[in-house]
Amino acid sequence: MADDNVDVVIVGSGFAGALIANELAKLGKRVVILEAGDGIPIDINKYMERFYKAAAKVPESPYTPTLFDEDTGLFSPEVNDPSKMPAGRPTVLTITEDWANPQKSYLVQDKKKDDGQPATPFGSTYDRVAGGTSHWLGTCLRFVPADFEMRKRYPNCPKGFVDWPINYNDLERHYRKAEEELGVSADIGEQNYLGITFPAGHRYPMPRIPESLTDRAVRNALKNLNPAETAFLGMSRPPTEIPVRGVPAARNSQPYKNRRACAGNTNCIPICPIQAKYDPTITLNEALNHKSVTMMKKTVAKEIVLDGDLRRVTQINYIDYGTGAAQKEGRIKAKIFVIAANAIETPRLLLMSQNAGRKPEGVANSSGMVGRHLMDHPYYVAWGLLPKESKALYPYRGPLITSGIEDLCDGPFRNERGAFRVDIGNEGWNFVVAGGAAGGDPDVTTIDFVNGVNRSGANPDGNTGVGMFGKNLVDKLNETITRQFRVGFLVEQTPDPDNRVTLSDFKDGLGLPRPKIAYSLSPYTKRGIVAAKQLQDLLFGKMGAKDRTTVQPIDPTLFEEEINGQRVQLNYGGAGHIMGTYRMGRNPKESVVDSFQRSHDHDNLYLVGSGTFPTGATANPTLTLAALALRTAEQIAKRV
Amino acid sequence: MSESTRRERAKEAQTAPEDDHVSGRLTRRTVLAGVAVTTAAVTVGVDTPTVAQSAISDMEAFTQLSAALTGLPAGKLAPTTDSIGIKQQYFNWLNEKEPAAFASLLNIAKRRIAENKDTAPQAMIDELRTSDSTNFLARSIVLMWYLGSWYSPANLKRLVDERSSRVPVFVPHTVISPKAYTQGWVWRIAQAHPMGYSDMQFGYWAREPAPIEDFISRTAAKGT
After folding, report:
1. Taking a C-beta distance cutoff of 8 angstroms, is the pair A316, A304 a contact?
2. Among candidates A279, A568, A276, A531, which has minimal Cα distance to A420?
């Protein structure tokens, strides 16, 4: 690579990397992208075939490197040996009771934290392929203004919470720019809650996505509430109605930028078969259509190299494992470097960059904050079943999620417990059944009625081993499956310095240390899940739904809390929202980057993505990280 | 069943005249032949004689058996003009995985159809339930049509045997092919579509779906 005249090197081609590359491309800047995984496929047919054939249709299932034995479609520990894969990645299929086994899991999950407390599983995953984690849902919520000011507004919240160095108004213009780029469908009229504002006359790029029948049932159930029923929420006034709002989504409600309108394939995660949902390969392709932009695929950055006085980055050393039969080491120089490798791979690269002992703590880490404050939105999911007398909901139709509950994500309770937002699923019980022990639906429920068992909880009277055949079976399945629903609660997580990404002693296929994770939920966050469970009980009661949520005794995320004098078993999953490990802030002693995501330590190094979030709020992070990336691109463009 | 028999079955199936199951109903010719044969079988007290197999093909028996087990019309499972041809994949798969039990099921189907085509569906079910080997393979066959996946009879038996387990037992399955997934009938029974495979139009999810009959018995099986 003739690298003498490169303006910007970007590590990673996901949301943040692709957006920045494209903004710079439009200005004719010379950009090289290093992508650890495969390039953009010519078409997505291979992704779709792999998904259809996969026994476990998990978020990572369509993408490469494949998780599966190509013949059987079964998860293959051999294919996935994390010590052999050049660019491995986590998968939910290894988050089992054996979650801390580094022979199976790419992420080396510790069972103990630095403070001596037990660690529990980190449940989120990502992809390492061109376009990054395309298995996102498409949710494009803005943060509410209070999300940027947790310390100022809620002085009693746990000490990890800080104010952002920017506020909602600083980011508003870039939110709009990101919504334009990703193509967001929503109606302004229902998005102005909790202080979210728009300029007069502004419209989203497309009208909202229509709501589903399940959305409507949830809305009706929460229309007339007694203040005594909602007092537990700790809002300034107990609500007598909890609104259900359309979720803004990067999902076309009409043709947009040469892509079709959504046809309701009910498959946003892991993959939209018609690309009606935005994914970063769209922007990446646009960037690569410029002559001044190139991407090196199967190229893993291994070290960020600093100059003699350790102030500026001079080059990135990489391993190219794709071009020839043997691995090839290389280096690339540029004026500015952007690390856009997500909130686990970015701190990993910074920590690996010890510059032959000149930087034992790694690059950009004079604060010691790199890798700390790992956050997710711990995801509490509840499964409901309406009785056959109720009107059916007809799930497994439409986008996976079309509406949610947003109005409960801010209030005085944030002094005491984690906030949450709620998403309403349109995919019945597809997202695992029975606490994950049995797999997902429609398989588990179907087997229950065919085989006379009751793993789903939907066949309590038929757990006799006899099973059903014929017309009766058809009727029973129709009656049951069309009345399934689920709701999920995304809970704000305490930024905890001991929730960490560090380097493990276990290596990947290139001989590089794999990320080690130590993670747990704080009491504040668990109290957020308790409130979520109380809202679930209220909702299910109003809907007349049976609760089919199960927490298995072997679930490593299980914990017990007391609700109204009763011991209740709860659990959490990963939302895929990996945040916080190189937080932004004003004080270089307490943060890694400034509000433009520039390293406090190194003038020409930018670290982008949701790793810079100092607090995680409750909204899905993609739109905010996209807005921040566009803001960063503007600053970089002025400098090269 | 030997390798050679298996190949012959497959060959026979491929050449089976489609006209034998127009609209999912047996033709007069096959029914008459079947009745005559059954009488003979009962008389001598042995399993279905070979002459019956020439009267009603294995594929036809498989189709009728599948219809009885799944509660779905034979003409929908295996249409006369079958551009998708999933029945052949399943037939070959069963011959490969469970040849003996599959042969028993086909014999039961043929015998019962020959006895009385109206009572055959229930008679088949009553008889196959009398033995674990046929009972559990029948369940595997239903799951195959519904889900496009193979859940082996042994694993289904295990689920039954351990149905009181404190933690639900996990059993593995194989998606038979990408096509099998996209042809799964459970999605239609749910008045929906396979996740990731739909030809419905923007906004359909805001309305109630068409009646279930439109999904499983009338022509517009994938309709909105």
Report:
1. yes
2. A531
3-state class percentages of chain B: helix first, strand second, coil last, to nearest 5:
60, 0, 35
Interchain CB contact of B131 with A (< 8 Å): no
Provide the shortest C-alpha distance from residue B123 to chain A (in Å): 12
Residue B219 is predicted with a pLDDT of: 54
Q: Is A453 part of the contact surface with chain B (CB cutoff 8 Å)?
A: yes
Cβ of B178 and A478 within 8 Å?
no
Q: What is the ipTM of this complex?
A: 0.95
Residue A610 bridge partners (DSSP): none
Choose the closest CB to B206 out of A49, A211, A473: A211
Q: Cis peptide before A65, with omega less than 30 degrees from 0?
A: yes
Domain residue spans of chain B: 3-178, 191-224
Contact B196 A266 (CB under 8 A): yes
Per CB-CB distance under 8 Å, the chain A contacts of B108 are: none
Continuous H helices in A506-545:
523-543
Q: Is A558 on the interface with B (CB under 8 A)?
A: no
* Contacts for A523 with CB less than 8 Å, ≥ 6 apart: none
Compute the nearest-CA separation of B182 from chain A (Å). 7
E strand or H helix at A177: helix A168-182
How many C-beta neighbours within 10 Å does residue A293 have? 22
Split at pLDDT 50, 70, 90, the class of B51 is very low
Task: Summarize pLDDT for A578-599 with one digit per residue, the tens.
Answer: 999 999 999 999 999 999 999 9
